Amino acid sequence: MFSSRDRLSDALFSKFSRLIFEKTGIYLKPEKRELLISRLGKRLRATKISSCQEYYDYIVRNQQGLEFTDFIDCISTNFTSFFRENTHFDYMSSTVLPALLTNGFGGSQEILLWSAACSSGEEPYTLAMVMEEFRVHRPGLRYRIKATDISTRMLAQAKRGVYSSDRIHNVPEQTLRRFFQKGVGQSAGYVKVKKEIMSQVEFMHFNLMHDFSTIGSPNIIFCRNVMIYFNKETQQELVDKFYNTLAPGGYLFIGHSESISSLKHRFVQIEATTYRKE
Which helix (H) or strand (E) segment is 36 a member of? Predict the structure, then answer.
């Protein structure tokens, strides 16, 4: 079923591409056609629907249904790892957090961090580990982490906090011992994030194209390796929304492969991929 290019015509690719853009902001360039074919093949096999056109008609008619959610999950790219692009976490500990303490968290009683595309949870759990290590000498420091993603499948995995051992190769040994439980018996080869870390993270299903009012006023936003999937207009909209929702003196971290230099923004750039709201 569905092995040849002619199963996804140019016109039908355009229809899928428009639908994905309208619902997620993700822009599928023509060169992403093979990727879409691969992802659609999985959904056709799962649903036993015989053609791309039939599948498209089905999800358009049932946009509130489970299959539409599964379709969006399938399209979303979900690569991540613990301590990915670790220079961000080092800079957060050495510079950002001390600055927030000096400036009073923008008027709040605690530091609010937002992992804006958290995938399977590695980034927000890393943030919690960094915060726990930072507050060893500041026991009164309070913080919360909101972690959001458009993929319900990834959020379900994140909430479990269980990972195969090959997913923790970037985690320092001391951090591993402090914040992870090693699986034994049938769970050998897996680790589980400890409760003290999991309890600091609130996971929420969220579409970055929607209103940010439910997020609050975070002091730190991590939105890394996400905007590369958006066109310039959507990137502009998103950067404006990040600026408006950040607390005064707050920080935005983007991915090392990204730049907002071509966009109009009010941030002050303080490192290559780190920005502050004045």
Answer: helix 33-47
Identify each DSSP E strand in 157-266 by its residue range. 162-164, 180-182, 190-193, 201-205, 220-222, 251-253
Q: How far apart are alpha carbons 192 and 16 in whole angstroms?
A: 38
Average pLDDT estimate for 60-78 = 80
- Report pTM: 0.84
Contacts of 163 (CB under 8 A, 6+ apart): 82, 120, 122, 190, 191, 192, 193
Q: Which of 104, 170, 193, 194 lies closest to 141, judged by CA?
A: 104
> What are the residue ranges of CATH 3.40.50.150 in the chain?
87-276
As a CATH number, domain 5-75 is 1.10.155.10
Range list for CATH 1.10.155.10 in the chain: 5-75
Query: What pLDDT is recorded for position 108?
Result: 66
Catalytic residues: 39, 149
The CB density around residue 259, as the number of other CB atoms within 10 Å, is: 15
Average pLDDT estimate for 76-104: 89
Distance CA 73, CA 57 (A): 18
Residue that the structure tokens 């906090």 belong to? 161
Q: Hey, what are 218's tokens?
A: 């975070």
CA dist list (Å): 198 to 125, 171, 174, 204 = 7, 16, 18, 14
pLDDT digits (tens, 9 = 90+) for 257-271: 899 999 999 999 999
CATH class of 87-276: alpha beta
Q: Helix 10-24 vs helix 33-47: angle between axes, to the nearest 10 degrees?
A: 80
